[in-house]
Amino acid sequence: MLSLLSGFKKFDRIILGILLLLLIFGLIVLFSASCQRQASTGKNFVLNQGIWIFLGLILVFMVSKTSYHSFLSVSYIIFAIHILFLILVLLMGKTALGAQRWISIGGIGFQPSEFVKVFTILALARMIGDNPSRLKTKTGLIGPFFIVLLPMALIFKQPDLGTAIVLLPIFLAMIWAGGIRLKYFWAIILSGLLSLPLFWSFLKDYQRDRLMVFINPNADPLGAGYTINQSKIAIGSGMLFGKGWLSGTQNQLNFLPERHTDFIFSVVGEEFGFMGTAVMLGLFLLLILRGLKIAELTKDVSGKLIVVGITTMLAFHVIINIGMTLGLMPVVGMPLPFISYGRSALIANLIAVGFLLNVQMNRTVF
Question: Are residues 189 and 143 in contact, defined by beta-carbon separation less than 8 angstroms?
């Protein structure tokens, strides 16, 4: 018991405090966002989310207490297993909302694409950390490219555009922190921009519709643009202090689709107003800044890259999710970390925080 308590004392209290506040706030918002659906389906979303939060926090403790070097030593194996899961998703996965993203093992369904982001970060951190000078040569970049492009291609095929896109800033942030030559870095950026026309040709029709609606939300107000318009109405109507918990009209009158998952920020804006969203965004900002501070204080290259990758992942999840609910970004299906309902995303993000704590305890000096 004493060793357990001493282990807790070593945790970064700032990160733990932020995490618990976000999780509690997420349950409060989820109750409002899901109460109508619970009445019609009988499914208790808050109870389910609470159970997985409890299990996820256990994983946070377990991951943080095992040296990240132990995870790095088997990172290629874990990465390969999740690549296999992604292949199985394409062959025998469950289809929902037009995408084939879920598989079931032992009666428990999960979304491998959520977990592969974390283990891609570990694989990249090991590859670059074992030989940082590889980023100084063209041939040395082949390995990191392969590590990222393989899961990206498989996830894009599902199709899951949002998750595939998030791997790009993770990759760019990690090779930047790893010391890549600037000419190679900007060459990668330029190559990506030039490949956008080819990227467009691979999109599904509904994905193209979403991108076109992003440019002009009124082009299809009852179709692809409906959710964006309703989301902006909900957020705008919240004004400064919101309409009050359980009192959002767009939410409670079922005008807003997917409000318990990808569009839960709309519920926050409507019921808690600008002040509520500002407090929530402040917590996310503190978490990101804390991650950057840990990266700055970490001397080990692999540990630094793990923190950079995870911090980038969480930051872009928040940016993309809130951006699409405000109509500032295309709708790509991206949950809000620790707030949106969803087992796989929740557990994967909690595991990611476990690695932040792990590196902080093992390779930083405060």
Answer: no
Residue pair 15/354 in contact by the 8 Å Cβ criterion: no
The answer to whether 37 and 45 have CB atoms below 8 angstroms apart is yes
Residue 163 pLDDT? 85
The whole-chain average pLDDT of the chain stands at 87
pLDDT score of 85: 92
Domain spans of the chain? 9-363
Nearest to 321 by CA among 203, 222, 197, 235: 235
Q: Which of 293, 292, 310 is nearest to 351 (CA)?
A: 310
d(CA 238, CA 224): 23
Alpha-carbon distance of 28 to 32, in angstroms, equals 7
On whether the pTM is more than 0.85, the answer is: yes
Distances (CA, A) of 1 to 10, 51, 160, 205, 316: 15, 24, 44, 57, 38
Is-contact 233 250, C-beta < 8 A? Answer: yes
* 101: number of Cβ within 10 Å: 25
pLDDT tens for 57-105 read: 999 999 998 889 999 999 999 999 999 999 988 888 776 655 667 787 7
